[in-house]
Specification:
- The protein has 177 residues and is mainly α.
- The protein is built from six helices and two strands; from the N terminus they run E-E-H-H-H-H-H-H.
- The protein has one domain.
- A two-stranded antiparallel sheet has the order 1-2.
- A hairpin with a 2-residue loop joins strand 1 and strand 2.
- 2% of the residues are buried.
- This is UNC80 domain-containing protein.
- GO terms for molecular function: monoatomic cation channel activity.
Length: 177
């Protein structure tokens, strides 16, 4: 047992368990959801901020919760469940009776559709930014794997006795065939 609480067991370092502040994560997600519901599309969060959520130095659970809240918000909007302030942003006329009595004014309806189109554009920008970050993460991982494989190939000891056939030997035999 060392000063940080890590345990060394049969030569393997077992890190000390860390507890998460569940209440803090839930409160943060609740505030994030409130901001998504109440701000104009595109003002919060902007696309680079959404992409930066992947690189936060925080527990995976916290990052996943924020990204899932964004997914839930976009999904609700796609099903027509827009925030109340967007749906009710048009002013209703107070005329009594008639078949057109409860329709919104054309300018209010136009304003609502404009807000929805703007939100859709920002959702698309979120997707582009997250996709770019994910492709960068995959490229970094692949380049590290390639470097490790290249190092293993160069350090292959061809003078070892053994039952296994090294992959470079298999490839060279396949070329002879």
């Amino acid at each position: 047992l060392d000063a940080q609480g890590n345990i060394r067991l049969y030569g393997i370092l077992v890190p000390a368990p860390r507890t998460l502040d569940n209440k803090g994560i839930f409160e943060g997600v609740r505030r994030f959801a409130f901001l998504l519901e109440t701000t104009r599309p595109g003002t919060f969060p902007d696309p680079p901020l959404i992409a930066a959520l992947l690189h936060l130095k925080s527990p995976v659970l916290a990052r996943a919760a924020l990204l899932l809240e964004c997914c839930h918000f976009v999904s609700r909007c796609n099903r027509g469940q827009w925030p109340e302030w967007i749906r009710s942003s048009h002013h209703r006329t107070l005329s009594l009776g008639g078949p057109l009595a409860n329709r919104g004014t054309p300018s209010g309806t136009r304003r609502m559709h404009s807000l929805q189109r703007t939100a859709g554009r920002y959702f698309y920008q979120w997707a582009i930014q997250i996709g770019d970050q994910l492709s960068r993460l995959i490229d970094i991982k692949e380049s590290k794997e390639k470097a490790v494989l290249k190092m293993e190939d160069s350090m292959e000891d061809f003078f070892d006795d053994g039952e296994q056939i090294p992959p470079p030997l298999v490839h060279s035999v396949a070329k002879l065939r």
